[in-house]
Amino acid sequence: MTETSTERSGPLTDLRVIELGQLVAGPFCGQMFADMGADVIKVEPPGQGDPLREWGRDGFPLWWSVCARGKRCITLNLRTEEGQGLLKQLVSEADFLVENFRPGTLEKWGLGYEELKKVNPGLIMIRVSGYGQTGPYSSRPGYASVGEAMGGVRYLMGEPDRKPSRAGISLGDSLAGLFSAFGALAALHHREKTGEGQMIDTSIYESVLAFMEGLVPEYQFEDYTRERSGSVLPSIAPSNIYDGRDGMVIIAANQPTVFARLCKAIGQPDLKDDPRFNTHAGRGENMAELDAIINEWTSSRTIDEIEAEMVEAAVPVGKVFRASDMLEDPHYKARQSLVEVPSERWPGILQQNIVPRLTGTPGKIRWAGPDRLGQHTADVLTDLLELTPEQVEKLKQSGIV
């Protein structure tokens, strides 16, 4: 099965997105549009392409097939006048343009928002950057790791006795892409009422900051600074990772009624009345003692045994999953949380399914990211811009595409 064997489906099939971004934040935004049926045309520089094409373990750049799924990929040299002209032609028939270059880059090429809205007043331009389009830091290069640090999450991640850790994923980039897609659809709603396009200014650090709960007002009014706390939340107990005989499991029972059920399930019903643990504050203050009691009970049992007893007692419980667990889990299978995606290079590849699920107009992953750089250049230029094959070949010979 190839990209031409299935039609786009979902709520956004009447929309077109021009994606100029590379690596993660902009392309993740584009991925969500493609998942929901939009025609996403990814523009890459000739001969180079998105660096994400090569990311991964040696010989296995598999992330590309997730982030580029469902997109048509073309090449276009935006540093040339002719390349800029071709982009403007594409933009004139597009609904969105998403980019995550350093602020000022597109303006240098004559492709800033003020220029592009001249050819398409209804254009919604999605701009993702480390620090935003304005402010004293706007011209700085900004990767997700820096945005996570400035947004506050990096300081809180890890154990308290060592330097902050990281999530092991590009968290800041993904959050910025998510907020960008949300903002773009809000702008689309506005355009449907007024006909006006607008610019979406998403910074990575503010996308992280938006997830930081009450961090700032807690400091403002209580003079309280959150610190790293490892696998627990301060004063919230029991809610931790516990050892089983064959893995790790999370048990969360900090609510009084749930805690009482947990005590009964582990054979210590009187524990709920123990002065150390009979209040929310007490359980938080004596977290280490309580966790030790629970871990003693879990460590003699398998994860399946722990889950069965906790589920029977209506206590929230969950295995700490790795990829191998996801492939075997019956709930994953029943909900098709992982789906097989058509791919020439990686036959049978499984990828995370579309989130969220729409009951009336669900999206569909039609194919994994195209392997060849510029794989759809000729199709897009001939179909959308009505160039002849001879004109496309001339553009190739001149290095424009």
UniProtKB/TrEMBL annotation:
Organism domain of life: Bacteria
Keywords: Transferase
Keyword Signal: no
Gene3D superfamilies: Crotonobetainyl-coa:carnitine coa-transferase, domain 1, formyl-coa transferase, domain 3
GO molecular function: transferase activity
Name this protein carries in UniProt: CoA transferase
